[in-house]
Amino acid sequence: MSGGWCAGGLLLLSVSLTACGDDAYITRIQEEGKLVVVTRNAPTTYYVGRDGDTGFEYELISAFAEELGVELELVMSDNPGNILGLVAEGEADIAAAGLTRTKQRQDRVLFSDSYQDVTQQVVCHRRGARPSGPEDLVGLSIEVPAETSYVEQLNRLQEETPELAWEVHPEHNTEFLLEKVWKRKLDCTVGDSNIVAVNQRYMPELSVRFELSDPQPLAWAMPANADGLQDAVNDWLDQYEEEGQLQALINQYYGFIEVFDYVDTRAFRRKVERVLPQYQKLFQEAGKQYGIDWTLLAAQAYQESHWNRHARSPTGVRGIMMLTQITAKEVGIQSRLDPKQSIMGGAKYLANLRGRLPEAITEPDRTWIALAAYNVGMGHIYDARKLARNQGKNPNLWHDFRDVLPLLSQKKYYEDLRYGYARGSEPVRYVRRIRNYHDMLLQALKVE
């Protein structure tokens, strides 16, 4: 990276905005006290998690806004063309939306230095099509989101392989099409490597067949007249990278991918025999204290961590019950890696969630919906209840509720909901797998 704004970086912002460069844009932002940022409501950019706003792009742009000393105002858009349009027209100061910096896009807006490289990957189902190059895509059903760099790359490849064909979707994003491949309703799609890596954690049957492009830079987009802002961003990115904070953020979200929820019956039975006895009394104690079947708590813990007391995820949740720092503080535990504290904390949190649900929800639906809240957050549960009513379904019955949750990942549904995008299929799979593990555990223990 290289910056050409002010020697010494953004620390000079608070001292003198007139010392160097074209600072009119920065001055206006600081006078208004806000930075308007357009982003995508998606797992690699911005979403509402268990403990509030999160996402790689969100954390990165929040750090920049904090350095400027201004509030962050987010604008949501899923279509890259619309995102770039908002920036080009000056309706947003920055697009922090996981955009690749391409020559075609640089004709419209300014871009920052790159903060991460990605490659475009062709993704198919593990038991489906096995293309090894562009020519093998001929005859397959392929869909990609509209106005993306994927379309640009496919257009270039079509010059060499005229028979290559695909369908473009103006409404569907990469995450939606990956899920469509996972459900075997589509042969293949294209996704940036960071998006694919995150989604493979939840849909392990997705398989990368080959790289469609060379590495491409992700960067923030800014209006064409925002040279001073561009220089300020580049100087700040230099500083952020030199301090090791950029790499730490990348490691948090993409540093390692572990799939905790891939069902392996034989592995589960081995762990029932070899690992569960270490923690069985703790599950029994927690179950008794919080009124939860201990075998269900054990099944949930297996889904969360495979009963690994040292388990951790890229987003920072830890321990047997995979608690966030905020949740651990809420339930009053000091060490998430201590098995007793983690199990007690997880049981207390689940009991709290169950207690927050409307009285009209009876068992066992109450427990299934509480488990879904443990996974996706109570805010999205409230959104799904509203959506269920709008769809003419009963929000108090799990079999109706589970049909609605996946709709939270579709723009036409989530854009009017308070908490926005959620990977709604994940809590459905989460509850289903806990119930499967629970059944297998009861069978293994011969518990009636």
UniProtKB/TrEMBL annotation:
What does the record give as the reaction this protein catalyses? Answer: Exolytic cleavage of the (1->4)-beta-glycosidic linkage between N-acetylmuramic acid (MurNAc) and N-acetylglucosamine (GlcNAc) residues in peptidoglycan, from either the reducing or the non-reducing ends of the peptidoglycan chains, with concomitant formation of a 1,6-anhydrobond in the MurNAc residue
Q: Which residues belong to the signal peptide in this entry?
A: 1-21
Give a GO cellular-component term. cell outer membrane
Q: Which residues form the Solute-binding protein family 3/N-terminal domain?
A: 34-257
Enzyme's top EC category = lyase
Q: Which topology term describes how it sits in the membrane?
A: Peripheral membrane protein
- Pfam families xref list: SBP_bac_3 (PF00497), SLT (PF01464)
Q: What Gene Ontology biological process does one annotation of this record name?
A: cell wall macromolecule catabolic process
Tell me the CDD domains matching this sequence: MLTF-like, PBP2_YfhD_N
User: Which keywords does the record carry?
Assistant: Cell outer membrane, Cell wall biogenesis/degradation, Lyase, Membrane, Signal
Gene3D superfamilies in UniProt: 1.10.530.10, Periplasmic binding protein-like II
Query: Which Enzyme Commission number(s) are on file for it?
Result: 4.2.2.n1
Q: Which residues form the active site?
A: 304
Q: Where is this region: LT domain?
A: 258-448
Report the GO molecular function annotations: peptidoglycan lytic transglycosylase activity
At the top level, the lineage of the source is Bacteria
Comment, domains = The N-terminal domain does not have lytic activity and probably modulates enzymatic activity. The C-terminal domain is the catalytic active domain.
What is the recorded function of this protein according to its Swiss-Prot or TrEMBL entry? Murein-degrading enzyme that degrades murein glycan strands and insoluble, high-molecular weight murein sacculi, with the concomitant formation of a 1,6-anhydromuramoyl product. Lytic transglycosylases (LTs) play an integral role in the metabolism of the peptidoglycan (PG) sacculus. Their lytic action creates space within the PG sacculus to allow for its expansion as well as for the insertion of various structures such as secretion systems and flagella.
Q: Which PANTHER family does the entry link to?
A: MEMBRANE-BOUND LYTIC MUREIN TRANSGLYCOSYLASE F (PTHR35936)
Q: What family does the database annotate?
A: In the C-terminal section; belongs to the transglycosylase Slt family. In the N-terminal section; belongs to the bacterial solute-binding protein 3 family.
Output this protein's name: Membrane-bound lytic murein transglycosylase F
Organism field: Thiohalophilus thiocyanatoxydans
